[in-house]
Amino acid sequence: MNTPVIILKPHKEESVLRLHMWVFSGAISKIVLDKSYPYDAPQEGELVQVADHTGKILAVGHWQIGSIAVRILAFGVDTLPNRFWHDRITAAWQLRQTLGLVREDNNTFRLIHGEGDFLPGLVIDVYGDTAVMQAHSIGMHNHRMEIAQAVTDCVPIIKRVYYKSDDTLPFKAPIEGDKTGYLIGEPLKEVLWALENGLGFRIDWLTGQKTGFFVDQRESRALLEHYAKGHDVLNMFCYTGGFSVYALRGGAKTVTSVDVSSKAIELVQDNVSHNFPHATNHTAVAADAFDFLNAEERKFDLIILDPPAFAKHRDAIQNALRGYRRLNAKGIEKIRPGGILFTFSCSQAIDKEMFRLAVFSAAAQVGRKVRILHQLHQPADHPINIYHPEGEYLKGLVLYVE
Ligand code: SAH
After folding, report:
1. Ligand 1 centre from 290 Cα, in Å?
2. Could you tell me which of 112, 110, 144, 108 has the C-alpha nearest to residue 127?
3. Are 339 and 278 part of one and the same domain?
4. Which residues contact 22 (CB under 8 A, 6 or more apart)?
5. Together in a domain, 47 and 147
6. Is the pLDDT confidence value at 220 over 70?
7. Distance from the CA of 289 to the center of ligand 1, in angstroms?
8. Cα 201 → chain centroid
9. pLDDT for 236-260, tens place per residue?
10. Is the pLDDT higher at 315 or at 279?
11. Range of the domain at 326
């Protein structure tokens, strides 16, 4: 049985030749299936070949039902090369070593960041000897065992691979096999304390959000630590309390952590007492962010606003921008003169300029003097493939508020 061939319309090969990793359904002129092919269309997650209108094969990738029809895995070949997974994972591991992320005081990092590591639809985060893997496509789901094997073969520190794709796989696709569970190794009997810049964090990949921790804020947390000394800090949307623990190490006078999830509040409390068993200057509150900010009368020297993505899709952009404006206006109001606001957006659909404009409108609405000190972004273990600018999702501003 031959691989299905996706024939592109004339000129639509240009983006593939420029190494963009997605083929949109509108670019396809026809699909050629072998006579012996058992179905009347390619199957979701199946490997397909992509060809220009003359039939010349340009790439292979995973077929997907939806507006992104193919996620390309390899260019200039008609089949996946031998040792494809091993080679890609080895390259990713080498990059993380080059970045200096694998140290005695740091064993928490992203190993695979989708298109940024030339593996669209795959995310793998590492916590010590455990890799937590998420498939965002049925194609990656189908290859999960080969991928897990390649991770343990190529990354010598990894002893177990946990698969966690119950929230990330497309809902409507028929899915064979389990969406969660250990692919390699045994469950840990004790709590895993991952190390980030010398601080310990309890990682609960079984019930935690995403892979269990937000690895992408490592550098912003370190910057916050630098500003925390002697200050009253408010960490909104704290989740596991990454920013709170760094603020305490930085010598904050008080730290208040807020999240709507009571499970997150338990985690932040555990993380604070693990790192600072005698700290009496930390308070954790389970509350909705707007309810908390509306009711709170105190002002703070340092506030972090790191909400979940307000725009998951392009059609939600306008509402999301209003949400960022409202939230940042509240945040700016609560800052003492001469204080600092760390504000973030992790919505992929909202670019840097849109976010900055929303924060600008918030500042103008409150009428405070606001200056930008730093412009933050995702760290280097979440690389942005230059041919796939859509991979840039995290942006932040550090503002000085007078
Ligand atoms: N800053 C965190 C990551 C934040 S993720 C870190 O460094 O790890 C976003 C968090 O916002 C989640 O923990 C989620 O529970 C919380 N959240 C979502 N909606 C909320 C709301 N309305 N009010 C307060 N917290 C909310």
Report:
1. 12
2. 108
3. yes
4. 68, 70, 71, 72, 120, 388
5. no
6. yes
7. 9
8. 18
9. 999 999 999 999 999 999 999 999 9
10. 279
11. 214-401
Q: What is the pLDDT of residue 312?
A: 81
Whether residue 264 is contained in a domain is answered as yes
Q: How many domains does the chain have?
A: 3
Q: Among 55, 75, 95, where does a domain finish?
A: 75
Which residue's entry shows tokens 């509306």? Answer: 294
Q: Are residues 90 and 69 in the same domain?
A: no
Q: CA-to-CA distance for 6 and 16, rounded, in angstroms?
A: 12
Average pLDDT over residues 341-357: 96
Percent of the chain whose pLDDT exceeds 90: 94
Single out the residue of 75, 86, 24, 26 nearest to residue 49, CA to CA. 75
pTM, full prediction: 0.96
- Token representation of residue 399: 């503002």
- Considering only CA atoms, which residue is closest to atom 15 of ligand 1? 261
In a domain, 223, yes or no: yes
Q: Please check whether residues 258 and 365 belong to one and the same domain.
A: yes
Helical H segments across 206-315, by residue range = 218-227, 242-249, 262-275, 289-295
Q: What is the gyration radius of the CA atoms in the chain, in angstroms?
A: 23
Ligand 1 close to Cβ of residue 260 (< 6 A): yes
Structure confidence by residue, pLDDT tens digits, 95-104 = 999 999 999 9
Domain presence at residue 198: no
